[in-house]
Design goal:
This protein is mainly α and about 375 residues long. The chain has a domain of about 210 residues: Ribonucleotide Reductase, subunit A (Orthogonal Bundle). About 60% of the residues lie in helices and about 5% in strands. The protein contains 15 helices and four strands. It has a two-stranded antiparallel ribbon. Strands 3-4 form a two-stranded antiparallel sheet. It is globular, with a radius of gyration of 21 Å. The chain starts with a helix and ends with a strand. Bound molecules: fe (ii) ion (FE2) (2 copies). The site of one fe (ii) ion has 5 residues, from helix 9 and helix 10. Belongs to the fatty acid desaturase type 2 family.
């Protein structure tokens, strides 16, 4: 989709040039192309690693007690968390009762349109690539889980966050499976391709960049699951609406945790944090599933994004709204004590939302002049959906 492409929602290998200010001597490598069978398109963006100066590791060490007191409480105790089974037919019931529950589920989903399923499947696949996201967070210097069971609060957060997130894909996958509306085999293949391909958010092992990325991304998923909840309700499935709504409320809590970390970084290192926010926004926030592929459509992610945009589930305007929200939440316009570089980063970020909206208006204008066309999605048995 053209408009989302302008906002960085296309795979990063289209963005061969971007400008950034780098701390001294980060290690720059080019990623070796993965085996052809496991990828949608070759990734060519330079791979920058370890861009945080080593002395800044101390910042994260010094914030460990703060993280214990102010971040870990945003996790929910397991016993008070919902589980997928709370929303699904109960398999231990007598067979007739179980099949009645499955039939009711299929009746509820029968009237939902195909394009809704394209978006819900894309969201589910994004959630199902969770191993990639835990890996990505564990690439971040100073906050990674060094042992796999580290008692460090940053590591405890990441493991428990992953455990909470793990319910999202499980629930959506089982619900979609029982609905009978989607081709599970092609969906499962897409998940396998996607986890094999990974992701490239451009966070450079740098927790400043990493936490800006996750703040943005958790809010993006909060917005999109909230919208799939609304559409499920309008389409006649109140249970699916509650499912998407419950996932959205987890995302909101997670967004709050990551945004709180960036807020703290802005307090202890205003220029460092401000420059990191600007760096991520210059690179544009890449969606986590940007390398998705089903073995058939090399532009699957663009096509999925275009349908999400058309249904209003996640749009270019949402991207600008999220940025505007974070600018307000972090009070970036009023931030003081910045160096010259920090001030320039502040001006860039605070001036960005209206520029994004203007670009979007222009892209919408162009899109209106184009012939409407459809694309077939393997996930819904190669039925055509208009973009
Ligand atoms: Fe999630
Ligand atoms: Fe999330």
């Amino acid at each position: 989709m053209q408009s989302l492409a302008l906002l960085g929602c296309t795979p990063p290998y289209y963005n061969l040039t971007h400008h950034r200010t780098k701390p001294p001597s980060p290690v720059v490598r080019f990623r070796l192309p993965p085996p052809v069978s496991a990828m949608a398109t070759p990734a060519l963006r330079p791979q920058v690693t370890h861009s945080m100066p080593p002395e800044k590791l101390e910042v994260f060490k010094s914030l460990e007690n703060w993280a214990t007191d102010c971040v870990l409480p945003l996790l929910k105790p397991v016993e008070s968390c919902w589980q997928p089974q709370d929303f699904l037919p109960i398999p231990s019931l007598p067979s007739d009762d179980f099949t009645d529950q499955v039939r009711a589920l299929r009746d509820r989903t029968a009237e939902l349109p195909d394009d809704y399923f394209v978006v819900l499947v894309g969201d589910m696949i994004t959630e199902d690539a969770l191993p990639t996201y835990q890996t990505m967070i564990n690439t971040l210097d100073g906050v990674r889980d060094e042992t796999g069971a580290s008692p460090n609060p940053w590591a405890m957060w990441t493991r428990a966050w992953t455990a909470e997130e793990n319910r999202h894909g499980d629930l959506l996958r089982t619900y979609l499976y029982l609905s009978g509306r989607v081709d599970m085999l092609t969906i499962e293949r897409t998940v396998q391709y996607l986890i094999g391909a990974g992701m490239d958010p451009g966070t450079e092992n740098n927790p400043y960049l990493g936490f800006v990325y996750t703040s943005f991304q958790e809010r993006a998923t909060f917005v999109s699951h909230g919208n799939t909840a609304r559409l499920a309700k309008e389409g006649g499935d109140p249970v699916l609406a509650r499912i998407c709504g419950s996932i959205a409320s987890d995302e909101k809590r997670h967004e709050n945790a990551y945004a709180r970390i960036v807020e703290k970084l802005l307090e202890v290192d205003p220029t460092g944090a401000m420059v990191a926010i600007s760096d991520m926004m210059r690179k544009k926030i890449t969606m986590p599933a940007h390398l998705m592929y089903d073995g058939q459509d090399p532009r699957l992610f663009d096509h999925f994004s275009a349908v999400a945009q058309r249904l209003g589930v996640y749009t270019a305007n949402d991207y600008a709204d999220i940025l505007e929200f974070l600018i307000g939440r972090w009070r970036l316009e009023k931030l003081e004590g910045l160096t010259g570089e920090g001030g320039r980063a502040q001006d860039f970020v605070c001036g960005l939302p209206p520029r994004i909206r203007k670009l979007q208006e222009r892209a919408d204008e162009q899109a209106r002049k184009m012939e409407p066309h459809g694309v077939r999605f393997s996930w819904i048995f190669n039925k055509e959906v208009s973009l």
